[in-house]
Amino acid sequence: MVVQQHARQAAAARAAAAAVAAATVMAGAAGCGGGAEAGDRNGDPTRLVRQAADRLVREGSSQARTSMEMASGGTRVTIRGEGVYDYRKGLGELKVQLPPDAAGTDEHRPITELLAPGALFMKNRGAGVPADKWVRVETASLTDGNLVTGGATDPLAAAELLRGAEDVTYVGESDVAGVATRHYRGTVDLAAAAKGASAGSKGALAAAAKGFGTSASVPFDAYLDDDGLLRKVRHRFSFANTQQKNGLRNTVVASTTLLYGFGRPAVVRLPQKKDIYAGEVAEK
User: Fold this and answer.
1) Cα 177–chain centre separation
2) CATH architecture, domain 2-266
3) How far apart, in Å, are the Cα atoms of 275 and each of 18, 48, 95, 97, 268?
4) Is the pLDDT of residue 46 over 60?
5) Pairing status of strand 61-72 against strand 179-189
6) Distance CA 211, CA 148 (A)
7) Are 38 and 227 in contact (CB under 8 A)?
8) What are the structural domain ranges in the chain?
9) Side-chain half-sphere exposure of 159, counting CA atoms within 13 A
10) Mean of per-residue pLDDT scores for the chain
11) How does residue 245 score in pLDDT terms, banded at 50, 70 and 90?
């Protein structure tokens, strides 16, 4: 919805706007974690990457920064977010900042997003929603499982995607925000997506797997520190936009999640029922 909102406002961003408004970018993941210790530098790369989500849950919480870049033709749009996440409860809060409109003159208030198992809550959604109300979306009802629709990938979902990692190779040492990490590259197999997901992510990833198609795969780059903690992950979702007048145009959405500040408190309070907007959300 955040992506859709910005795309309509940026009328000049013809390809990205059409692609995001269609909300047809999907992805998923699957597989299970292995039994080796996550911090074992000499362990099997595929097994180390697949257990990234389990390692985050053991750690408990962290701060997070997100970046979502959409590119189609000569148009590029970037949406950024920042917040905290509790991996044990599957709860997070992000402030998502939309970029200026195509003319560069219209600034937008940050949208507050609350991430919960099976649901996305948004405040400052605009489009006729009262300022003190939240919009609730069932993530399993979205064809991409909310991997890109909200303008930011849920940090735990980003790690859960790696449960389906395959063809993983070790790229080399890399510095991520001042932390030494090991860089791995591979693809996520969507055919096994929902099967290996945890209970909180299963519905959303099942929707993504169904929407994107079981034969597709999603390239990724993952960066693990010496303790096996996922410090950064980047997924690249690609699809053909059928709304272009001149035929198909390939649209790429790159979602990057940076994790840091592990162990710091991540208090997330979900809205009460009376604070959730019950009306229709305008698409303008």
Assistant:
1) 20
2) Clam (2.50)
3) 32, 42, 19, 22, 15
4) yes
5) unpaired
6) 13
7) yes
8) 2-266
9) 26
10) 80
11) very low
